[in-house]
Amino acid sequence: MSADKIEWPRLRVADWTATRDTLHMWTQIVGKIRMALTPPINHWWHVTLYPTARGLSTSAMPYEGGTLDIEFDFLDHVLRLRTGDGRAAAVALEPKPVATFYAETMDALATLGVRVQIHAVPNEVENAIPFAEDTTHASYDADAVRLFWQQLLRVERALAEFRNAFVGKASPVHFFWGAMDLAHTRFSGRLAPPHPGVAPNCPPSVMHEGYSHELASFGFWPGGGDEGAFYAYAYPEPPGYAQAPVWPAATYYDEDLREFLLPYEAVATAPDPDRALHDFLESTYLAAADVGHWDRQALERSPSEG
Q1: CA pair distance 28, 82, nearest whole angstrom
Q2: Which helix (H) or strand (E) covers residue 215, if one does?
């Protein structure tokens, strides 16, 4: 089946909220392991996860004894931990409290001889229950998780195609476990004013590093609507950004979030979903670049360059 014939998976937020919130905490645990083992990269790009043909992965990480990767396998519903010398451990993905998942994951690391310490409290959530004490989040709907992963794969494809036209500094397409979103960010090349650092349970220094340079960011978040939402924002937001023309028609500017939002279902039900999402990404980028006076000639690839 060709890429343009693949349907966009449908998943109502209300149908999997409990599972989503549990999975969010599990990805935070694995993401914090990556953060502890991986050398820092600007804007926290060293802490993210990446969609794979089976789920979400840390990619290869160095540790004292070699190399490790950790992958959420959403086909077999197993967390796989693998070392470069062929050893492996696994944790079942099934209904269980975060505290149990945390203990099993740390035990699996220990059996592989990987010593790592993390700050075992979630970030960017209002009620930050320490992982070892979290018996509140304990749901796992395997079918819903598989649908969410398939959504991530579809969005990643679109964001990767969108990324190709920009030759300036740009992030990979990656999954931030803090807010549980798949994102891609473009930079103008100019410094930004210090970010106010307002994310819950997150030190201001994290936001200062993430938003140290002027940017336009785009992504998908499994919240903010009946089936999740695509978002776009600029930092610092230039005057006139919120009033700029954007597409498709279902796009709107949220005054509280200070972001453009496009409901996921508006893309999934569009006659040409890929075109609808591309229009959203391109028009919101132009909203930031044009009113923000970015040097577009230097930052963009012309169509003739392919």
Answers
A1: 19
A2: strand 213-221
Tokens coding 9: 């998976």
Tens digits of per-residue pLDDT, 68-111?
999 999 999 999 999 999 999 999 999 999 999 999 999 999 99
**Domain residue spans of the chain:** 3-133, 142-305
Q: Which amino acid is at 268?
A: A
Q: Are 219 and 292 in contact, with CB atoms under 8 Å apart?
A: no
String of DSSP letters for 106-169: HHHHHHTT-------S-SS-SS---GGG--S-----HHHHHHHHHHHHHHHHHHHHHHTTB-SS
- Give the Cα separation of 8 and 22 in Å (integer): 24
pTM surpassing 0.70? yes
pLDDT of residue 5: 56
Q: What is the pLDDT of residue 303?
A: 67
Cβ contact 215:192 at 8 Å: yes
Question: Whose CA is closest to 68, among 51, 52, 91, 89?
Answer: 89
Q: Which of 20, 63, 198 is nearest to 123 (CA)?
A: 198
For the chain, the residue count is 306
Per-residue pLDDT at 224: 84
> What one-letter code names the amino acid at 232?
A
Residues of the chain with pLDDT under 50: 1-4
8 Å CB contact between 79 and 94: no
Where b means 16+ CB within 10 Å and e means fewer, 151-189 reads: bbebbbbbbeebbebbeeebbebbbbbbbbbbbbbbbbe
What secondary structure letter does DSSP report for 252?
E
Contact assessment for residue 187 and residue 215, using Cβ atoms and an 8 Å cutoff: yes
pLDDT digits (tens, 9 = 90+) for 134-144: 999 999 999 99
Q: What pLDDT score was predicted for residue 302?
A: 78
Which strands sit side by side in the sheet containing 181-191, from one edge to the other? 174-176, 181-191, 213-221, 229-235, 259-263, 252-254
